Amino acid sequence: MLLLCVPKPYRDEARLRKLYGDSAKRIFIPRTTKELANLVKEREETALRLEKAEIALIKKANAARNKFYRNNPQSAGVRRWFTTGRAIQTLNDQNTGNGKDMSSHNEMTTIDSGETVRQSNEPREAVLPDIQFLPEIELQDNVNDAEGGKNVPAHEEEEIKAEDLDYVHPYGLRPDLADVRGSVAAQWIPAEDRPHHRPIGNFGRRVDTIRWTRNRLKELNKEIFQLRRRIRRGEADPLPAAFIEFDTQEAAHAAQQVVVHHLPLQMAPGLLGIRPEEVIWESLRMKWWERIIRRLLILCGITAAIIFWSIPAAFVGLVSNIDYLTKEVPFLHWVNDLPSFVKGVIGGFLPPFALSVLMALVPIILRICAAQAGIPSLVIGELFTQNAYFAFQVVQVFLVTTITSAASGALQSIIENPLGIQSLLAQNLPKASNFYLSYILIQCLATGGTGILQAFSLIRHQIVAKTSDVPRTRFKTWHKLRPARWGGIFPVFTNMGVIALSYACIAPLILVFCAGGMAFMGLVWKYNLIYVFDTSTDSKGLFYPRALQQLIIGLYLAQICLIGLLILNKAYGPMGLVIALLLFTGLIHFLLRDAISRLMWNLPQTLALEEQIQEEEKIKLAANNDSGEANGNDAGGAAASYFDVEQAFGDEEEEAELEDTDEDDHHVVSNRGLEGAGNIRMALTAWVKSAAIEKFKTEADKYGINEYLRRAFAFLRNGDGEEPPGFLIRWLHPEEHEDFVALRKLLPQEERPPIAYKEGDKRATYEPPELWLPKPTLWIPRDEARVSRQEVAHTRLSTPISDLGAELSKSGRIVIDNIDAAPFEEHRLLL
């Protein structure tokens, strides 16, 4: 359970445990980590910049290498060496052909942008021009590395650790290659071509990206480690929130239903079933007054957006009436010259499609607003999005479009005859349903077809992923399934139901289109939920009942529409009946919502005992039946159980008569003339009923109606209780056949091992991610020039990195040959 707005005296584990008792298993009080969050975010961004720079360096070096070999096929096995000041060439006499004496002294060699390395005492050539070519020296006594295919000197084989086989100098190249930054890539590209950028903190001066990001990562790692240690010591202030884990589900729900604090808006609301990955940690720091102000401002902004969003929606409604626009707007006369098919597409297809695209941007904006309003959970944010997006849908897609579409067709007639507005609107409002027929077809059929084809996913997997130069992007593409964001899905189809209910009395044909479209979308979503979409949050089924409650808005609008049409046609008698029906619908809606609202969020305490009570009732019933059969009271068992022979009947009447005798005689009125009249009336009524029933049975048997009804009810009941009940019985008695106990038995009863957290697993605690996120892991492709080997060896001192599973092809494209070798951990929660 998550508690919000916890006052300072209760931000203590001991006091919270005293408040909730022994049922509180673990208590987590998060602390302020804003500075740490900024550092962790900067480290992630810096690591990604380093990864892109590494990939760019690898691609540049290999492109230069391949180009050189294409232009100089006779130089196969020869490598180039670039330096900033001079080039050093190590050659044997037989390779160079000159017999100069080589000096034997230590020499400082400048390699790759000014970094100096002292070379060993060995023969050196005199200073040569900037570009020289070095023959590749093959080692005779090398052992082949099975993993990476590189050669390692035999005398060093015993000194190599198992985990370092791929990254031991000289990376499968010349044994005298300097083990300094970029020495492998420097054989093919100069220092000026290395990735670089101009950070603001360096006053815009150019720096080498790889070197700068490595140093910055080392600094950030140190700062993050020190800050985490201070926070865990308790030096940071606690946030006004607390996570409490209980030993049982019943205890958690009991604690959630208790009013905890004596002041309003303190330690409330208590959110149940929330997991660490669902928490919006930025919202936990807000105080109660800040949360109220933010929510008020966000709601005002959404209301203003609903109003001003009607401008483009109204334009879409105007475009749907293309015949009127071509007549009244001069520069659109050319539309009349188009073929009828094209005009039909423009007037019938483009407006609904544009409206769908326009409304698709709204959920994204609403989710951002939900986070800014202080909503602490992603699930609650989706519910907030569902409510706000449904308001957008009803106002923009239905009301504004209906009014503009109907008014645009009758605008000229209204201007010419203002007094005839009643009859004109009455004639044109039903015609506006043509737009919604196209809208429902596009939303259901086109969206359903796209959902089956998964065109966007196809483009993402086959085009975007393959053209990406970052292996991390391909890993996310293939390992991350899209979640079903119900806050932006349910309102679209709920609004279709509202439109269908509203136009059911005006244009009943819309019911056929809506029913067919909904049936098709049901099949599509069944397929997608099983094979396409993924979920990482548990909504506890709250979206569907909320959509059902929102569907009642369609009844309100339908009745208001009928009232308006009846007023326009001056039918005041039926208008009064519909107004009474509108009031009755509102009353039923209020009572229904008040009855089930608490059951939506809270778990009733009786559910824990319901199954036990049902089992006890069955045992008692079986025991009574057995005792009745043993005593021989099969025929009269019901009467014997109904009448209690030990009960003294008539005593109450005698006592009442004794009390009446004390009263005065003038208060007693004799009616002996009417005595027995009630019994005669009851007897006559029973005789008439029995005679009518017998007559009906006789006629029903004569025409075979009884047999037909018996078979029909037997088909619906599916037997006498031994078999599962039929549809009619389940629909008439849901409290018996679809209650909690019956539905729980339908779930798979598989024994699963209890969830056990590993020791030191930070994901088992409710802490912000910045307190436990590990160092970012980089993934670069392996290349033939062996640049990636040296980059891995040097970069892993700053952050984890790997070049396994990805390769750079000869054409310069990155190929993922083993996606399972990606160095990223995937944690899956099985529900």
Structure description:
- The protein is an alpha+beta fold.
- α2 runs antiparallel to α4 (209-232) and α17 runs parallel beside α19 (543-568).
- β15 and β16 (814-816) form a beta hairpin.
- The chain is globular and about 125 Å long.
- The chain contains 29 helices and 16 strands.
- A 4-stranded antiparallel sheet has the order 2-11-1-12. Strands 3-6 form a two-stranded antiparallel sheet. It has a two-stranded antiparallel ribbon with strand order 4-5.
- Mean pLDDT is 75; it is low at 82-165, 634-653 and 663-674.
- Among the domains are: 280-607, no CATH class; 706-748, no CATH class.
Rg is 40 Å
Helical/strand content category: alpha+beta
Instruction: Indicate the proportion of strand residues.
Output: 5-15%
Helix content: 40-55%
Give me the number of helical elements. Answer: 29
The neighbouring-strand order within the major sheet is: 2-11-1-12
What are the SSEs and their pairings?
Elements: E1 2-4, H1 13-20, E2 24-28, H2 34-71, E3 78-82, H3 93-96, E4 108-111, E5 115-118, E6 131-135, E7 142-144, E8 151-153, E9 196-197, E10 207-208, H4 209-232, E11 241-246, H5 249-256, E12 270-271, H6 288-308, H7 310-320, H8 322-328, H9 340-348, H10 350-360, H11 362-372, H12 378-416, H13 421-428, H14 433-453, H15 455-467, H16 471-479, H17 490-502, H18 509-531, H19 543-568, H20 572-601, H21 607-630, H22 637-642, H23 651-660, H24 677-703, H25 705-717, H26 727-732, H27 734-737, H28 740-746, E13 778-779, H29 787-795, E14 801-802, E15 806-808, E16 814-816
Parallel strand pairs: 13-14
Antiparallel strand pairs: 1-11, 1-12, 2-11, 3-6, 4-5, 7-8, 9-10, 15-16
